[in-house]
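for the record, two folds in this file. i put them one after another cuz i was lazy. first one right below, seq on top, structure tokens after. the second one comes after a little note so u can tell where it starts
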Amino acid sequence: MRTRMLIALLCGLLFAVPAALADDPFRDDHPERYTVQRGDTLWDISERFLESPWLWPEIWHVNPEIENPHLIYPGDVIHLVFVDGEPRLTVDRGQRTVRLSPEVREEELEPAISTIPMEAIRPFLNRSRVVDEETLEDAAYIVAGEDERVMATRGDNVYVRNLPDDQTESFMIVRKGDPYVDPDTDRVLGFEATYLGDARVTRHGDPGTAQVASSNREIRAGDRLLEAPAGPIRTTFQPRAPEDDVRGVIMDVMDGVTQIGQFDVVVVNRGTEHGMEDGHVLAVYKAGREVRDDVAGETVTLPEERAGEMIIFEVFDELSFGLVMRATRAMNTMDIVRNP
């Protein structure tokens, strides 16, 4: 059976409508029902009904008559209903393919839809690291390749020094990237550890031997080995506003683009030390530019303008990675992020 992607729609109970939802949260052009399509995400569907898609868990109504209401699949039908006079969204199971084998009767379903487009963030999950300089300096490192090769790729052996004493075998190969500098304090919050591939230690020692199991670019002497993350890649996110007040800035954008748009991955200067968690939704505001007021003879700063929303999907100590889910105008580094 295919792996099912759980989506964190709710905590298992009917959510009470908070004060923030006292006004009508639904779009004026919302449908009364919607049939889930292959390729949809929870965010996409929420946008059809709600002004603020991340409020989906607040108005979800569990249907006790269906099995596992925590999952939504292509073919399911989302309905707008009223429960005790309050608007709620609920799901009715649609028709899905069931395959039966001669020996074992097993139901095989399409995977449940994900909260956000996983293809946009998959390269950054469990492979992207933000580490301090000391961690990189203390990590195991490649000293040479076999047969005097300057660079190594998949299947090649490399010689490694400074391996840990715990006989760890699985590592990810990284290269020290640019520093992330907090524009508010000018402090270095960490360094990007650029993912190069995976390696498996075949002989411990000093130097030890490792085989490159996979690579996405050439590997050379000086590249570091960090212990590979344990467990499966996370695919579930519960979109919600942060509990604490958040105000930060976009420090960087991945893939070298200059203007930021929908589904771009960005780095913000707020992390676990500031109460950030994966699933937190932040609004992005264009920083107000300074203009000259010739009438008053002074310089004034224009108001901030809302430019979109992002969802945080990977959190480190002092910074986080976020995926831009909606962009109403072009964004740039140094734009402001805060509670939605």
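(here's the note) second protein begins now
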Amino acid sequence: MSKAFSVPVTPQGKSALATLPPWHYSSDCLAVEYGVDQNAIAALLPPGLTVDEKSAGRAFFWFLDWQFTGSNDELTDPARYQYREAFVLVEAVFDGVPVNYCPYIFVDNDAAIARGWAQGFPKKLGSVYQTRSFSAPSLAAAPLAKGSRFGASVTAHGKGWRPPVSSWSKPSPILRPFSTGRRPCAVTSHSSRPAAGTNHRSTNSPCRSRTVSRSWMWGGSAELKLPVVDGEDMHLIAPLRVGQGYRLGMAYSVTDLRILKNYAG
């Protein structure tokens, strides 16, 4: 019997892109808080989710430099289990509960795509880069210190976005605007078939995670630009205003998913 969790399905399951949870992640992150037209957010939300009127269209653009492991010491295989990611979170409501919803996400690793699709994240293959910090003093070290500057970019199919993040000025010990740390993340799992007459199915489900932690946080001014890109429509949630930027370390574990509502036709 196959032991595979995801494709490709083989007798031993060693070729599968994703193994069974738990999945453990550690990352250096760049994030920018910004404001979006609420009508644009409403157009992206799946059944069951509504705009959070109290948040005034708040969204976050994240860049993350990840290291992953499952239950088999995968962090010692960095070619397969290190990856970079960029995504947007918009604030919404499900059954009266404030949540975050992810309408766009790009990643540069096929195993990360497989894990994301299993959870309901709409991951696409892309090229993602961000400024890294190093301990040895240098003009290129980008230390966590006053005056340091960081940048990030994401491209898909050779075309993309470069939201520069700049002027990191001070430690930010309070996660006031980071409602992303307090809201569960609602995602949508899709299943569709090319056969004629087959209905599209979707299931709304959030990530259930454990042991979320942050090691440090710096905040400062930020810039964010989401221009029109051929073949993409992320410009529809381009910023009306830009808030603070953040540099932080984050780690968490995914243990399972809880289905909120099944919309299968």
